[in-house]
Amino acid sequence: MPLPEKALIAQIRRMAKSSTRGRALGSKGPIFTGIGDDCAVLRLLPGQETLVTTDFTLEGIHFRRDWHAPESVGHRCLARGLSDIAAMGGEPVAAFLSLALPRDLPQSWVGRFARSLISLAEKFGVTLAGGDTAESPNGILADIIVVGTAPKGKSVLRSGARPGDRIFVSGELGGSAAAVLQMRIKPKKKVKPRDYPRHFFPEPRIELGRILREKGIASAMIDTSDGLSTDLAHLCEESGVGAELDAALIPRARVGKPAREVDLDLALHGGEDYELLFTARPGKRIPSQIAGLALAHIGHITRPRLILLRNLKGIAYEFEPRGWEHFRR
Protein backbone atom coordinates (compact mmCIF):
# COMPACT_ATOMS: atom_id res chain seq x y z
CA MET A 1 0.00 0.00 0.00
CA PRO A 2 1.30 3.53 -0.76
CA LEU A 3 2.01 5.97 2.04
CA PRO A 4 -0.98 7.91 3.43
CA GLU A 5 -1.90 10.70 1.00
CA LYS A 6 -0.32 13.56 2.97
CA ALA A 7 2.99 11.71 3.43
CA LEU A 8 2.98 10.56 -0.21
CA ILE A 9 2.56 14.12 -1.48
CA ALA A 10 5.30 15.34 0.87
CA GLN A 11 7.68 12.66 -0.43
CA ILE A 12 6.99 13.52 -4.09
CA ARG A 13 7.34 17.22 -3.26
CA ARG A 14 10.80 16.64 -1.76
CA MET A 15 11.81 14.59 -4.81
CA ALA A 16 10.64 17.34 -7.18
CA LYS A 17 12.52 20.04 -5.27
CA SER A 18 15.76 18.04 -5.25
CA SER A 19 15.64 17.22 -8.97
CA THR A 20 17.18 19.37 -11.68
CA ARG A 21 13.80 20.39 -12.99
CA GLY A 22 12.58 21.01 -9.45
CA ARG A 23 15.04 23.90 -9.13
CA ALA A 24 12.61 25.92 -11.25
CA LEU A 25 10.09 25.81 -8.40
CA GLY A 26 11.34 29.08 -6.90
CA SER A 27 10.05 32.60 -7.52
CA LYS A 28 12.77 33.19 -10.15
CA GLY A 29 11.37 30.56 -12.52
CA PRO A 30 8.01 30.38 -14.32
CA ILE A 31 6.54 28.21 -11.52
CA PHE A 32 5.86 30.67 -8.70
CA THR A 33 3.95 28.20 -6.48
CA GLY A 34 4.07 24.46 -7.07
CA ILE A 35 3.03 21.46 -4.98
CA GLY A 36 1.33 22.40 -1.72
CA ASP A 37 -1.49 24.76 -2.69
CA ASP A 38 -4.94 24.45 -4.26
CA CYS A 39 -3.45 25.40 -7.64
CA ALA A 40 -0.01 25.73 -9.15
CA VAL A 41 0.76 29.38 -9.92
CA LEU A 42 2.63 29.99 -13.18
CA ARG A 43 4.00 33.35 -14.26
CA LEU A 44 3.94 33.04 -18.02
CA LEU A 45 2.64 36.47 -19.08
CA PRO A 46 3.45 39.99 -17.82
CA GLY A 47 1.08 41.22 -15.09
CA GLN A 48 -0.80 37.92 -14.81
CA GLU A 49 -0.65 34.62 -12.98
CA THR A 50 -1.91 31.40 -14.55
CA LEU A 51 -3.58 28.98 -12.12
CA VAL A 52 -3.63 25.26 -12.88
CA THR A 53 -5.35 22.49 -10.91
CA THR A 54 -6.22 18.85 -11.58
CA ASP A 55 -8.63 16.44 -9.86
CA PHE A 56 -9.69 12.83 -10.26
CA THR A 57 -13.29 11.66 -10.08
CA LEU A 58 -13.24 7.88 -9.57
CA GLU A 59 -16.14 5.46 -9.54
CA GLY A 60 -16.32 3.74 -6.17
CA ILE A 61 -14.33 6.50 -4.45
CA HIS A 62 -16.03 9.78 -5.36
CA PHE A 63 -19.34 8.45 -6.65
CA ARG A 64 -21.43 5.34 -7.17
CA ARG A 65 -23.71 4.88 -10.16
CA ASP A 66 -26.50 3.54 -7.95
CA TRP A 67 -26.27 6.65 -5.76
CA HIS A 68 -25.41 9.43 -8.21
CA ALA A 69 -27.12 10.33 -11.47
CA PRO A 70 -24.71 11.10 -14.36
CA GLU A 71 -25.77 14.76 -14.14
CA SER A 72 -24.49 14.89 -10.55
CA VAL A 73 -21.23 13.14 -11.46
CA GLY A 74 -20.52 15.57 -14.32
CA HIS A 75 -21.37 18.62 -12.20
CA ARG A 76 -19.24 17.44 -9.26
CA CYS A 77 -16.33 16.55 -11.54
CA LEU A 78 -15.93 20.15 -12.75
CA ALA A 79 -17.00 21.74 -9.44
CA ARG A 80 -13.95 20.19 -7.76
CA GLY A 81 -11.57 22.03 -10.07
CA LEU A 82 -13.53 25.28 -10.04
CA SER A 83 -13.45 25.27 -6.24
CA ASP A 84 -9.64 25.12 -6.32
CA ILE A 85 -9.59 28.19 -8.57
CA ALA A 86 -11.99 29.95 -6.16
CA ALA A 87 -9.66 29.14 -3.25
CA MET A 88 -6.90 31.12 -4.98
CA GLY A 89 -9.19 34.08 -5.67
CA GLY A 90 -8.92 33.35 -9.39
CA GLU A 91 -11.13 33.50 -12.47
CA PRO A 92 -11.58 30.16 -14.31
CA VAL A 93 -10.87 30.18 -18.04
CA ALA A 94 -10.63 26.69 -19.53
CA ALA A 95 -11.04 23.02 -18.61
CA PHE A 96 -9.56 19.80 -20.00
CA LEU A 97 -11.38 16.52 -19.41
CA SER A 98 -9.89 13.03 -19.73
CA LEU A 99 -12.30 10.10 -19.52
CA ALA A 100 -11.61 6.39 -19.15
CA LEU A 101 -14.85 4.46 -19.65
CA PRO A 102 -15.80 0.77 -19.40
CA ARG A 103 -16.90 -0.84 -22.67
CA ASP A 104 -20.39 -1.69 -21.36
CA LEU A 105 -21.22 1.87 -20.20
CA PRO A 106 -24.35 3.18 -22.02
CA GLN A 107 -23.73 6.18 -24.27
CA SER A 108 -26.76 7.85 -22.69
CA TRP A 109 -24.85 7.95 -19.36
CA VAL A 110 -21.88 9.62 -21.04
CA GLY A 111 -24.11 12.18 -22.76
CA ARG A 112 -25.90 13.16 -19.57
CA PHE A 113 -22.55 13.43 -17.72
CA ALA A 114 -21.06 15.67 -20.43
CA ARG A 115 -24.11 17.93 -20.76
CA SER A 116 -24.12 18.61 -17.02
CA LEU A 117 -20.39 19.33 -16.92
CA ILE A 118 -20.63 21.67 -19.90
CA SER A 119 -23.66 23.42 -18.39
CA LEU A 120 -21.67 24.25 -15.25
CA ALA A 121 -18.72 25.35 -17.40
CA GLU A 122 -20.95 27.77 -19.33
CA LYS A 123 -22.30 29.21 -16.08
CA PHE A 124 -18.80 30.32 -15.10
CA GLY A 125 -17.59 31.28 -18.58
CA VAL A 126 -15.28 28.27 -18.87
CA THR A 127 -14.42 26.63 -22.21
CA LEU A 128 -14.01 22.87 -22.39
CA ALA A 129 -10.84 23.09 -24.46
CA GLY A 130 -9.63 19.50 -24.80
CA GLY A 131 -8.78 16.25 -23.05
CA ASP A 132 -8.49 12.56 -23.83
CA THR A 133 -10.54 9.35 -23.87
CA ALA A 134 -9.59 5.75 -23.21
CA GLU A 135 -11.16 2.40 -22.39
CA SER A 136 -11.20 1.43 -18.73
CA PRO A 137 -10.98 -2.25 -17.68
CA ASN A 138 -13.40 -1.54 -14.84
CA GLY A 139 -15.08 1.59 -13.54
CA ILE A 140 -15.29 5.20 -14.72
CA LEU A 141 -12.33 7.54 -14.29
CA ALA A 142 -12.59 11.27 -15.04
CA ASP A 143 -9.63 13.64 -14.69
CA ILE A 144 -10.39 17.35 -14.89
CA ILE A 145 -7.77 20.06 -15.36
CA VAL A 146 -8.94 23.65 -14.83
CA VAL A 147 -6.93 26.71 -15.82
CA GLY A 148 -7.61 30.16 -14.40
CA THR A 149 -6.01 33.57 -13.96
CA ALA A 150 -5.30 36.15 -11.28
CA PRO A 151 -3.43 39.47 -11.31
CA LYS A 152 0.32 39.09 -10.71
CA GLY A 153 1.14 38.78 -7.02
CA LYS A 154 -2.52 38.62 -5.98
CA SER A 155 -3.27 34.87 -5.87
CA VAL A 156 -4.35 33.94 -2.34
CA LEU A 157 -2.07 31.18 -1.07
CA ARG A 158 -2.34 28.80 1.87
CA SER A 159 0.91 30.19 3.26
CA GLY A 160 -0.19 33.71 4.21
CA ALA A 161 -1.72 33.15 7.67
CA ARG A 162 -0.01 34.79 10.69
CA PRO A 163 -0.54 34.50 14.47
CA GLY A 164 -3.48 36.66 15.50
CA ASP A 165 -5.33 36.31 12.18
CA ARG A 166 -8.99 35.41 12.52
CA ILE A 167 -10.38 32.29 10.85
CA PHE A 168 -13.57 32.43 8.77
CA VAL A 169 -15.58 29.94 6.73
CA SER A 170 -18.37 30.53 4.23
CA GLY A 171 -21.79 28.87 4.18
CA GLU A 172 -22.49 25.73 6.19
CA LEU A 173 -20.49 22.56 6.79
CA GLY A 174 -21.28 18.86 6.93
CA GLY A 175 -24.10 18.78 4.38
CA SER A 176 -22.25 16.67 1.84
CA ALA A 177 -20.95 14.18 4.41
CA ALA A 178 -24.47 13.86 5.81
CA ALA A 179 -25.72 12.70 2.40
CA VAL A 180 -22.98 10.05 2.16
CA LEU A 181 -23.75 8.86 5.68
CA GLN A 182 -27.45 8.59 4.85
CA MET A 183 -26.72 6.57 1.70
CA ARG A 184 -24.44 4.22 3.61
CA ILE A 185 -26.94 3.69 6.44
CA LYS A 186 -29.87 3.11 4.07
CA PRO A 187 -28.30 1.99 0.76
CA LYS A 188 -31.62 0.83 -0.73
CA LYS A 189 -33.45 4.07 0.03
CA LYS A 190 -33.04 6.74 -2.66
CA VAL A 191 -31.59 9.97 -1.26
CA LYS A 192 -33.13 12.98 -3.00
CA PRO A 193 -30.67 15.57 -4.35
CA ARG A 194 -33.03 18.41 -3.39
CA ASP A 195 -32.66 17.40 0.28
CA TYR A 196 -28.84 17.34 0.04
CA PRO A 197 -27.94 19.86 -2.69
CA ARG A 198 -24.45 20.56 -1.33
CA HIS A 199 -23.49 16.97 -2.02
CA PHE A 200 -25.10 16.28 -5.39
CA PHE A 201 -24.70 19.75 -6.98
CA PRO A 202 -22.13 21.79 -5.02
CA GLU A 203 -21.71 25.44 -5.97
CA PRO A 204 -18.09 26.59 -6.43
CA ARG A 205 -17.53 29.88 -4.57
CA ILE A 206 -15.90 31.68 -7.50
CA GLU A 207 -17.43 35.11 -6.86
CA LEU A 208 -16.68 35.00 -3.13
CA GLY A 209 -13.06 34.03 -3.76
CA ARG A 210 -12.65 36.83 -6.29
CA ILE A 211 -14.08 39.45 -3.90
CA LEU A 212 -11.90 38.24 -1.02
CA ARG A 213 -8.88 38.63 -3.30
CA GLU A 214 -9.88 41.97 -4.85
CA LYS A 215 -10.62 43.61 -1.49
CA GLY A 216 -7.49 42.17 0.13
CA ILE A 217 -9.55 40.48 2.84
CA ALA A 218 -8.07 36.96 2.84
CA SER A 219 -4.48 36.53 4.04
CA ALA A 220 -4.62 32.77 3.33
CA MET A 221 -7.31 30.54 1.84
CA ILE A 222 -8.25 26.94 1.03
CA ASP A 223 -11.47 25.18 0.03
CA THR A 224 -13.14 22.60 2.29
CA SER A 225 -12.85 19.65 -0.07
CA ASP A 226 -11.28 17.26 2.48
CA GLY A 227 -13.10 18.55 5.57
CA LEU A 228 -12.61 21.56 7.86
CA SER A 229 -10.16 19.86 10.23
CA THR A 230 -7.94 18.47 7.48
CA ASP A 231 -8.02 21.57 5.28
CA LEU A 232 -7.26 23.85 8.23
CA ALA A 233 -4.29 21.58 9.01
CA HIS A 234 -3.09 21.99 5.39
CA LEU A 235 -3.34 25.79 5.68
CA CYS A 236 -1.56 25.86 9.05
CA GLU A 237 1.24 23.61 7.80
CA GLU A 238 1.94 25.80 4.76
CA SER A 239 1.84 28.96 6.95
CA GLY A 240 3.91 27.48 9.79
CA VAL A 241 1.27 28.28 12.42
CA GLY A 242 -1.39 26.67 14.62
CA ALA A 243 -5.05 27.44 15.25
CA GLU A 244 -7.80 27.43 17.84
CA LEU A 245 -11.40 26.81 16.82
CA ASP A 246 -14.60 27.36 18.80
CA ALA A 247 -17.04 24.46 18.30
CA ALA A 248 -20.00 26.68 19.16
CA LEU A 249 -19.22 28.90 16.15
CA ILE A 250 -18.92 26.17 13.50
CA PRO A 251 -21.83 26.68 11.03
CA ARG A 252 -23.57 23.31 10.75
CA ALA A 253 -25.67 22.46 7.70
CA ARG A 254 -29.37 21.69 7.91
CA VAL A 255 -30.25 18.77 5.66
CA GLY A 256 -32.96 16.23 4.87
CA LYS A 257 -36.71 16.46 5.16
CA PRO A 258 -37.68 17.61 7.70
CA ALA A 259 -34.48 19.65 7.86
CA ARG A 260 -32.19 18.89 10.79
CA GLU A 261 -28.79 20.16 11.87
CA VAL A 262 -25.87 17.81 11.22
CA ASP A 263 -23.67 16.49 14.03
CA LEU A 264 -20.62 18.55 14.96
CA ASP A 265 -18.30 15.71 13.84
CA LEU A 266 -19.66 15.92 10.29
CA ALA A 267 -19.20 19.70 10.23
CA LEU A 268 -15.62 19.38 11.51
CA HIS A 269 -14.43 16.41 9.48
CA GLY A 270 -16.84 15.83 6.58
CA GLY A 271 -15.52 16.83 3.17
CA GLU A 272 -16.83 17.93 -0.24
CA ASP A 273 -18.71 21.02 0.97
CA TYR A 274 -16.46 23.20 -1.24
CA GLU A 275 -16.88 26.24 0.98
CA LEU A 276 -13.98 28.68 1.45
CA LEU A 277 -11.91 28.63 4.63
CA PHE A 278 -9.80 31.78 4.99
CA THR A 279 -7.89 33.92 7.45
CA ALA A 280 -7.94 37.71 7.84
CA ARG A 281 -5.69 40.17 9.64
CA PRO A 282 -6.89 41.35 13.09
CA GLY A 283 -7.78 44.89 12.01
CA LYS A 284 -9.59 43.93 8.81
CA ARG A 285 -13.34 44.56 8.82
CA ILE A 286 -15.22 41.46 7.62
CA PRO A 287 -18.91 41.76 6.65
CA SER A 288 -21.35 39.11 7.80
CA GLN A 289 -22.13 38.27 4.17
CA ILE A 290 -20.34 38.52 0.83
CA ALA A 291 -21.92 37.59 -2.51
CA GLY A 292 -25.02 36.42 -0.63
CA LEU A 293 -23.02 33.94 1.48
CA ALA A 294 -22.84 34.05 5.26
CA LEU A 295 -19.32 34.25 6.71
CA ALA A 296 -18.71 32.74 10.17
CA HIS A 297 -15.82 33.75 12.43
CA ILE A 298 -14.84 30.36 13.91
CA GLY A 299 -11.45 30.89 15.55
CA HIS A 300 -7.99 32.42 15.30
CA ILE A 301 -4.45 31.57 14.23
CA THR A 302 -1.87 30.87 16.96
CA ARG A 303 1.91 30.76 17.11
CA PRO A 304 2.27 27.22 18.59
CA ARG A 305 1.84 24.70 15.79
CA LEU A 306 -1.10 22.91 17.37
CA ILE A 307 -4.75 22.84 16.37
CA LEU A 308 -7.02 23.24 19.38
CA LEU A 309 -10.79 22.92 19.59
CA ARG A 310 -12.75 24.70 22.30
CA ASN A 311 -15.68 22.35 22.82
CA LEU A 312 -19.28 23.24 23.63
CA LYS A 313 -18.39 23.27 27.35
CA GLY A 314 -15.63 25.83 26.73
CA ILE A 315 -12.76 23.39 27.28
CA ALA A 316 -9.90 23.58 24.75
CA TYR A 317 -8.07 20.41 23.70
CA GLU A 318 -5.81 19.35 20.85
CA PHE A 319 -7.62 17.46 18.13
CA GLU A 320 -6.43 15.57 15.09
CA PRO A 321 -7.58 16.16 11.51
CA ARG A 322 -10.06 13.42 10.59
CA GLY A 323 -11.17 14.56 7.15
CA TRP A 324 -10.61 12.60 3.95
CA GLU A 325 -7.15 11.16 3.21
CA HIS A 326 -6.44 8.47 0.62
CA PHE A 327 -4.43 5.40 1.74
CA ARG A 328 -5.01 6.16 5.43
CA ARG A 329 -4.15 3.12 7.50
Helix content: 25-40%
Number of strands: 16
**From the helix content, strand content and strand pairing, which structural class follows?**
alpha+beta
Please report which band the strand proportion falls in: under 5%, 5-15%, 15-25%, 25-35%, 35-45% or over 45%: 25-35%
Number of domains: 2
Topology:
Layout: H1 5-18, E1 31-33, E2 40-45, E3 48-58, H2 70-87, E4 91-101, H3 107-123, E5 127-135, E6 141-151, E7 166-170, H4 175-185, H5 197-200, H6 206-214, E8 220-223, H7 228-239, E9 242-246, E10 254-255, E11 260-261, H8 264-269, E12 276-280, E13 289-290, E14 293-302, E15 307-310, E16 316-318
Parallel strand pairs: 4-5, 9-15
Antiparallel strand pairs: 1-2, 2-3, 3-6, 4-6, 7-12, 7-14, 8-12, 9-14, 10-11, 13-14, 15-16
Helix pairs in contact: 2-3, 2-6
Notes on the structure:
There is one protein chain. This protein is of the alpha+beta class. It folds into 2 domains: 36-151, 60s Ribosomal Protein L30, Chain: A, CATH 3.30.1330.10; 158-318, Phosphoribosyl-aminoimidazole Synthetase, Chain A, domain 2, CATH 3.90.650.10. It has 8 helices and 16 strands. It has helices at residues 5-18, 70-87, 107-123, 175-185, 197-200, 206-214, 228-239, 264-269, and strands spanning 31-33, 40-45, 48-58, 91-101, 127-135, 141-151, 166-170, 220-223, 242-246, 254-255, 260-261, 276-280, 289-290, 293-302, 307-310, 316-318. Strands 7, 8, 9, 12, 13, 14, 15 and 16 form an 8-stranded mixed β-sheet that branches. A 6-stranded mixed β-sheet has the order 1-2-3-6-4-5. α2 (70-87) packs parallel to α3 and α2 packs parallel to α6. The longest helix has 18 residues, at 70-87. It is globular and about 55 Å long.
